[in-house]
Structure formats: C-alpha cells, structure tokens
C-alpha cells in the first residue's frame, strides 16, 4: 500500500516542492490550505506527474476545520505516514517595540496552535503503528532574533523548541520529528533554495531519520543583516521563507 504525505499549509513554492519530492517516490499526497481553487490547481499539476493527490480545504486557524480536513485526508488516502507543516506567515508582521497581544496571538494561532492541532490528530495513530514522521517548518527568526520579525519570531521559536522536544520524547517510540529552518527566499532555479531542491532535503530527513534539524540558507548572512541594520532592516517577503 502506498504511503501518504499530508502537507498542511500547502502552497506553490515550498509545499509543492515537498509534495513532488515525496510523490515521485511513490507517496500519495494530501494538500491542505485555505484556498480551494489553488489547491485544485496544485492537485492537477501533481496528477500530470503521475502523483496521486487530493485537496482538503481548511483554514488552519480554525482548529475544528483543520482536524476535520486531516480526518478527511486519512479517510481518502489512508493512514498519514508523514505530516509536513509549513503555513506562510499571514497578517501584520511587527517590530519588537510595536508588538501587541493581538499581533502575537495571530502568529501563535497559525504556527504553534495549528501545529499542535495537526500533530495531535495524527500522532495517536502513528504511536499505535510505532512509525511515522512529523516535519515542522520554521523560518530564520526561529533561530536568530530579528526585531523586524518580532511577533513571527516569537511563534517560530516556540514551534522550533517544541519540535526539538518532540524529537527527544518520540524517537524511542518509532516517531521521527524534524524541523526545517528556512533561512532563504524560495526561488525556482535558485540552487539550494529551489523548491525541488528543498523538497529533496525534506525527503532525505524522512528517509535517513538521523537528525532533528535541517537549515536551508545562510544563518550567518541573516545575522549580519540584523546587525548591520540595527534590527531595523526591511522585513523579508512574508512567505514561508526567511521569516
């Protein structure tokens, strides 16, 4: 029976790179995001490559809708073997001194509470099987404090911390948890930043199961940017890239 990957927060860049990498290795692919039309376009593109894929529209911030979409993916494609979580940051991205409760809450709902909801749904079945993979994506602000990405960084750092603790706790139970830190813009034809090159890195983590974290891009370059601008540099484009 074919294994199943579900990409939560699927988009045409990173999400599709991961979907192609796994799909071309024989995985069925479930794509979960808010916009139904975009999802169906991506399903069609995967079908042209011979990849079995299906769309499951849901707003990730709506925890009941997210759980229902994941349940539908399991019913349609079978048990979820690999969960990849990578929604793009949305909503206002605030500097440190301008961060508010509302701006932080919005990012935590998307990046942390959404991930906790998704993992909470798939993990019991993975534990019952003694096998499974959870891949949780963060941006560079999860690792390097950047004042111009303050509210996103707070959420990303929380997600990265949780991924590391899950890895430690679940490895003895046959569950591999990894986090991927994207410290680069995602650009077709951009070397290691190409979506398919990134997707291959995710597949390597799944296949080798020997590391908790993968970094794509140059952390030192971003650290230098923050230092040179005094933390007031222009925020990177808010995709699931260098945020």
Protein model, in words:
Helices cover 46% and strands 17% of the residues. The N and C termini lie far apart (37 Å). The model is unreliable at 235-242 (pLDDT under 50). The chain has a 7-stranded parallel beta sheet, sandwiched between helices. The chain has helices at 14-23, 36-48, 63-77, 101-129, 150-170, 195-208, 219-228; strands spanning 4-8, 28-33, 53-57, 82-85, 132-139, 175-183, 213-217. The chain contains 7 helices and 7 strands; from the N terminus they run βαβαβαβαβαβαβα. It has 243 residues and is α/β, with parallel strands linked by helices.
Please give the structural blueprint.
Blueprint: E1 4-8, H1 14-23, E2 28-33, H2 36-48, E3 53-57, H3 63-77, E4 82-85, H4 101-129, E5 132-139, H5 150-170, E6 175-183, H6 195-208, E7 213-217, H7 219-228
Parallel strand pairs: 1-2, 1-4, 2-3, 4-5, 5-6, 6-7
Helix pairs in contact: 1-6, 3-4, 4-5
* Percentage of β-strand residues: 15-25%
User: What's the helical proportion of residues?
Assistant: 40-55%
Q: What Rg, in angstroms, do the CA atoms define?
A: 17 Å
Mean pLDDT: 93
Backbone shape: globular
List how many beta strands DSSP finds: 7
Major beta sheet summary: 7 strands, parallel
Instruction: Output the structural class.
Output: alpha/beta
Q: Which consecutive residue ranges, at least 5 long each, have pLDDT under 50?
A: 235-242
Number of helices: 7
List the strand order in the largest sheet: 3-2-1-4-5-6-7
Compute the separation of the termini in Å.
37 Å
Helix and strand string, N-terminal first?
A: EHEHEHEHEHEHEH
């Amino acid at each position: 029976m074919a294994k199943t990957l579900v990409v939560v927060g699927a988009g045409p860049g990173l999400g599709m790179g991961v979907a192609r990498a796994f799909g071309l290795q024989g995985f069925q692919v479930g794509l979960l995001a808010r916009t139904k039309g975009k999802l169906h376009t991506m399903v069609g593109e995967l079908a042209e490559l011979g990849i079995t894929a299906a769309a499951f529209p849901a707003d990730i911030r709506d925890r009941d809708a997210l759980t229902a979409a994941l349940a539908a993916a399991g019913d349609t494609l079978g048990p979820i073997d690999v969960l990849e979580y990578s929604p793009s940051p949305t909503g206002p991205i605030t500097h440190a001194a301008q961060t508010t409760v509302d701006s932080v809450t919005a990012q935590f709902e998307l990046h942390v509470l959404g991930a906790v909801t998704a993992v909470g749904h798939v993990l019991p079945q993975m534990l019952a099987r003694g096998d499974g993979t959870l891949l949780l994506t963060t941006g560079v602000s999860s690792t390097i404090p950047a004042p111009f990405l303050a509210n996103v960084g707070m959420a990303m750092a929380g997600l990265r911390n949780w991924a590391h603790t899950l890895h430690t706790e679940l490895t003895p139970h046959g569950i591999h948890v990894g986090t991927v830190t994207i410290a680069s813009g995602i650009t077709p034809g951009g070397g290691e930043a190409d979506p398919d090159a990134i997707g291959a890195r995710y597949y390597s983590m799944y296949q080798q199961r020997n590391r908790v974290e993968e970094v794509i891009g140059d952390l030192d370059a971003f650290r230098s940017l923050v230092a040179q601008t005094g933390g007031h540099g222009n925020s990177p484009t808010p995709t699931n890239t260098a945020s």
